[in-house]
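User: tokens in, sequence out, please.
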């Protein structure tokens, strides 16, 4: 996409995941691998979006556990909490504060178009929380509280990123005179770009190649959790659904074979090669032989991550310390931006 990131903004990455569940291989290959990579080229801020989590009912004790688990998964996957900023959203009040200003910028009609709200609210829309409806505005505030220019997300978040740009643009326009007068540049907020996908954008269920790997699947054999040990990883791969044929040697041969396609995709992503490169190596093999190779690879690549995650989770106080440190550094960026926003809007005072 050739849409310019509005002039002069320092490249900065922001992304987040909801602490509503234990993370799995789909979250790792679909997102975290990319997040880790982006640390080499960008200043990165990675957030555990706990305020988004409570837009649907959460058991408080489970929420606490999940926040630490997601933070541990970020670190175990390779996010460096010193080089990057890692924190949970609720510790930085600027997210909520900027969301309020954006509530007054965003239009009802814009939010009415959000497809994720319609899906999540389902038939009983009258009973959905206002927070669930307002979710994308808080997401815009997450991103723009840091003037982030790039947001690595899944395909399903594209519409929310468009809304973020609409909000930034309307704010920039509505307050253009004031922004110029105060010397805050031509555009106050950047028009943030999504960075879509990871090495394997769609990791499917190990039990059904037509369904996405998901925490809500009742069968634990459908997914590899980032807390599974080597034995569990091996067992789940051995039990994964397959078909009776040998693997094809061309990618085209995977088109009508969702389970084979998924396992080859996982193999390729774990090896950082394309599916065709993987098939050059493993094409023609029976599933039994391929699965042994996949087990070895998965245990080699994921074993250290899942064991690091279990190690981190054994010391929740250390995770809390890391999150508190990240939150204070996040505040260091967001607070001056929020001060300027107050001034732009015309509020009096402001600490
Ligand atoms: N809505 C995102 C998701 O469900 C999570 C999220 C919240 C987010 N705030 C964000 C992602 C800001 C990127 C940037 O995946």
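Assistant: Sequence out:
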């Amino acid at each position: 996409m050739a849409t310019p990131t509005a002039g002069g903004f320092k490249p900065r990455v922001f992304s987040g995941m909801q602490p509503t569940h234990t993370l799995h291989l789909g979250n790792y290959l679909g997102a975290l691998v990319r997040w880790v990579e982006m640390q080499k080229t960008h200043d990165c801020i990675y957030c555990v979006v706990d305020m988004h989590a409570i837009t649907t009912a959460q058991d408080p004790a489970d929420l606490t556990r999940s926040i630490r688990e997601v933070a541990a998964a970020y670190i175990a996957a390779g996010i460096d909490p010193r080089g990057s900023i890692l924190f949970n959203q609720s510790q930085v009040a600027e997210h909520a504060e900027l969301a309020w200003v954006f509530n007054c910028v965003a239009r009802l009609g814009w939010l009415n178009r959000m497809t994720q709200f319609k899906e999540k609210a389902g038939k009983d829309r009258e009973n959905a929380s206002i927070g669930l409806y307002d979710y994308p505005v808080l997401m815009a505030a997450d991103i723009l509280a840091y003037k982030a220019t790039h947001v690595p997300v899944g395909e399903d978040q594209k519409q929310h990123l468009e809304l973020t740009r609409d909000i930034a643009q309307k704010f920039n326009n509505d307050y253009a005179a004031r922004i110029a007068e105060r010397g805050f540049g031509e555009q106050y907020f950047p028009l943030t770009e999504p960075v879509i996908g990871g090495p394997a954008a769609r990791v499917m269920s190990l039990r059904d190649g037509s369904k996405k790997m998901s925490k809500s699947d009742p069968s634990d054999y459908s997914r590899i959790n980032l807390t599974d040990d080597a034995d569990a990883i091996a067992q789940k791969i051995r039990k994964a659904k397959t078909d009776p044929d040998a693997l094809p040697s061309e990618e085209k041969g995977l088109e009508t074979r969702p389970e084979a396609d998924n396992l080859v995709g996982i193999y390729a992503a774990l090896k950082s090669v394309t599916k065709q490169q993987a098939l050059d190596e493993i094409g023609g093999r029976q599933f039994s032989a391929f699965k042994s190779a996949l087990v070895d690879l998965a245990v080699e690549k994921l074993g250290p991550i899942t064991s690091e995650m279990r190690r981190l989770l054994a010391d929740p106080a250390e995770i809390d310390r890391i999150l508190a440190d990240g939150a204070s550094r996040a505040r260091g960026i967001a607070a001056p931006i929020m001060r300027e926003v107050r001034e732009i809007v015309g509020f009096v005072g402001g600490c």
